[in-house]
Specification:
354 residues; Rossmann fold; 2 domains; 6-stranded mixed beta sheet; 4-stranded parallel beta sheet; globular; cobalamin biosynthesis; isomerase
Length: 354
């Protein structure tokens, strides 16, 4: 999870590995890691590999490449399992040299991979492929359960173990767990971003009966509407009520943009959940900028490769309270899961007030 960050620094990242005499081995792995990071973090100017020995580029060459691209902040990600001598001595010495050479560039070093339940889970799955079926129950104790509550509770118990250490608030943690549950991907929380207090504000809005507006019917269908109605929240999808023809090839705007524009002042103080259309999010940002209408919070999770990451970057650069997922990831199920997580938090606070 991320919270507020500097919006003006031009950042690049270096994935730093020891290197190997078998160049086709480690280099291909590090290149794939760089490609994944670059695809999911388009705000980075560059994502470069670098190696301590045997392979190229080395740290100095990778830093020079990042600086040439215009980076004034370089984040170094050690692809090491634990903090050995390279992490504690060699890399800091290299960084000191780079700081002297590039005094205007900020260098940051993250932790090594270390222990992570995700790695344990990966090993567990590999083990499960080779064990006899009769022994799988020891790895997957809930595999034969058919009761939905038991299945969900078992999932949430496992997700609790997989959550990385973080300073989540209770509401933020509820969102993180629901997103993992909805996506089946524990790594989704690495791209989850909250503006300060956004999760808590959403809970309060829902408790006070705020409108919930979605960009598509799939988000609408995934929201716990009965629970929302208990708080007096109206759940609507302007696109579902749009009267314009479905074929808008002659129109410069998409149907999602038109629907969002038609919503107008209904957006004021509403919980807006966007899980499909980047154009809907871009249209909403235009409305805020041009008309001064401000939603209570925007759950901005459009998915895709065209304008999805860019629209979310613009949301995160605005002053609108938001919950979002960096990069191309997102989807209707995740937007709905976020709303549901916070509806359940609202219900919990009402039933069990402190």
């Amino acid at each position: 999870m991320e919270k507020s960050t500097s919006k003006n620094q031009a950042c690049a990242a270096i994935v730093f590995s020891h290197g190997s005499r078998r160049e086709e081995g480690i280099c291909r792995i590090v290149e794939l890691v760089c490609q994944d990071i670059a695809a999911q973090t388009p705000a980075l100017l560059k994502v470069c590999p670098a190696y301590m020995s045997f392979n190229q580029p080395d740290m100095q060459s990778a830093v020079a490449e990042c600086v040439a691209a215009g980076a004034d902040k370089i984040i170094i990600l050690p692809y090491f399992l634990y903090d050995g001598i390279h992490i504690t001595q060699d890399i800091p010495e290299l960084i000191t040299q780079m700081e002297e050479k590039y005094p205007r560039v900020e260098f940051c070093l993250t932790d090594s991979l270390g222990y992570n339940p995700l790695l344990s889970l990966l090993m567990q799955h590999k083990l499960g492929r080779l064990l006899p079926k009769s022994q799988l129950a020891c790895i997957y104790p809930n595999m034969h359960s058919s009761h939905p509550v038991q299945i969900e509770n078992a999932s949430m118990d496992l997700i609790e173990e997989l959550l990385p250490e973080n300073n989540y608030t209770p509401a933020e943690k509820a969102v993180a767990k629901r997103l993992i549950h909805a996506s089946g991907d524990p790594g989704i929380v690495n791209y989850l971003v909250f503006s300060p207090g956004a999760a808590e504000k959403t809970v309060e809005l829902l408790k006070n009966g705020a409108d919930i507006i979605t960009d598509v019917k799939m988000v609408l269908a995934g929201i716990k509407s009965a629970l929302a109605e208990e708080f007096g929240c109206r759940v609507s999808c302007p696109l579902a009520d749009l009267k314009t023809p479905k074929n808008v090839s002659g129109n410069a705007l998409t149907r999602s943009q038109i629907a969002m524009q038609n919503t107008g002042r209904k957006l004021e103080n509403a919980v807006v959940a966007i899980g499909n259309a980047p154009t809907a999010l871009l249209s909403l940002l235009d409305i805020v900028s041009q008309l001064g209408i401000k939603p209570g919070v925007v759950i901005g999770m459009p998915v895709g490769f065209i304008q999805a990451a860019e629209s979310k970057d613009l949301l995160m650069a605005s002053d609108i309270p938001f919950i979002s997922i960096r990069g191309n990831r997102g989807g209707s199920n995740l937007a709905a899961a976020t709303v549901n997580a916070l509806l359940l938090q609202a219900e919990k606070q009402v039933l069990c007030p402190r």
